[in-house]
Design goal:
Length: about 350
């Protein structure tokens, strides 16, 4: 077993606190990684507070992991000690169903194994995430990180990056595309960067007029305040794709009115309550579609990382020490971050 230091939730209400636990021994197909940085995703907070269902405590969150390979199993051929690698939202799947065969492991018919909050196939124990000193992962679920990028700012790409990249690729965004992005947070700021780098004309819709200048800095060509009915009316029937990153119930009917013929609104935000349903004629009159998307497969995630390496794209982050995690959670609830907290695991106490 591998002694590991981590930051865990012990129940749904208490602050996160240090926890010592053991990682499994390195199996034939496993890779042992020293964690350098881990992003803080809003999903981490929802999970440890029990807002998305029962949670096995103690629970170490974190699925935006960048680190260095320490050692590899006897059967590993893809990785070696010293490689800079990443681990995203999943660490295993059945690897035999049709979605897995198609490189869509996130849609595994028997359910992917989440980086935390799931069960290890090897041990049956709860999986523990990246707010930790070490992690052991099957070699097939590890990503190569471009060495020339800031590894701390790469960490959020393993969730926020791939979550927005996947729908952009699925709906074939490129030069000439008109893409709307709803919400400028951890996901939204990556959607703007990636869509702009793909050559799209990017329109940001935000409830915060104060975010207009920053949205343009990120790559937006237009910014529309969602409460400005006249400005939204001018966008009607003009967008090919809308990436909606907002995780609370809101009016998606008015967003769908902005789509042109055969346009698609993709929901990425995991709202715990349902959105008000759009009217039937919103779909019928322009053959519009309402869809959802879940992270991305391993091959697609590597494609995204390679694209970011080529274009010099990383997340906008605030790097924090391990003992600042609880403050970061409280600030995240207030949207007081631009645009992702990342933990420096080098500050994690081994006690």
């Amino acid at each position: 077993m591998i002694p590991t230091s981590g930051i865990a939730a012990y129940d749904a209400a208490s602050p996160l606190a240090p926890w010592r636990f053991d990682r499994r021994d390195v199996g034939a197909q496993d890779v042992h990684i020293q964690v350098l940085f881990c992003g803080i995703c809003h999903s981490d907070l929802h999970t440890v507070r029990g807002e998305w269902g029962p949670c096995a405590y103690p629970q170490v969150p974190g699925h935006e992991v960048v680190g260095r390979v320490v050692s590899v199993g006897a059967g590993v051929t893809r990785w070696k000690a010293g490689d800079l690698v990443g681990v995203g939202c999943m660490v295993d799947s059945c690897q035999s169903c049709q979605p897995c065969g198609d490189g869509l492991e996130q849609y595994c018919d028997t359910g992917m194994t989440g980086t935390y909050g799931s069960r290890e196939k090897e041990t049956g124990r709860p999986t523990q995430g990246g707010y930790s000193s070490d992690i052991v992962v099957n070699e097939k679920f590890i990503l190569r990180v471009p060495e020339h990028l800031d590894p701390a700012a790469v960490a959020p790409l393993l969730c926020a990056g791939i979550t927005t990249w996947s729908p952009l690729r699925q709906w074939k965004v490129g030069k000439g595309s008109r893409v709307g992005v709803v919400g400028i947070g951890g996901l939204g700021h990556m959607a703007v960067k990636l869509a702009a780098a793909l050559g799209a004309h990017v329109v940001v819709l935000t409830t915060s007029p104060s975010k207009a200048d920053d949205a343009r800095r990120l790559g937006a060509h237009e910014v529309v305040v969602s409460k400005d009915a006249q400005a939204k009316k001018g966008l009607r029937n003009s967008l090919d794709l809308i990436i909606d990153t907002v995780g609370t119930p809101h009016d998606i009917d008015s967003e769908m009115q902005l789509l042109r013929l055969d346009g698609t609104l993709v929901l990425l935000g995991g709202s715990p309550e349902p959105h008000p349903a759009p009217g039937a004629f919103t779909f019928i009159m322009k053959r519009r579609r309402l869809a959802g998307s879940l992270i991305g497969g391993i091959a697609e995630t590597q494609e995204m990382l390679d694209f970011c390496g080529l274009h010099g794209i990383t997340a906008d982050i605030e790097l924090i020490a391990a003992d600042a995690v609880n403050d970061a959670y409280e600030r995240m609830l207030k949207s007081d971050v631009k645009y992702r907290f990342v933990i420096d695991l080098g500050t994690l106490s081994a006690e």
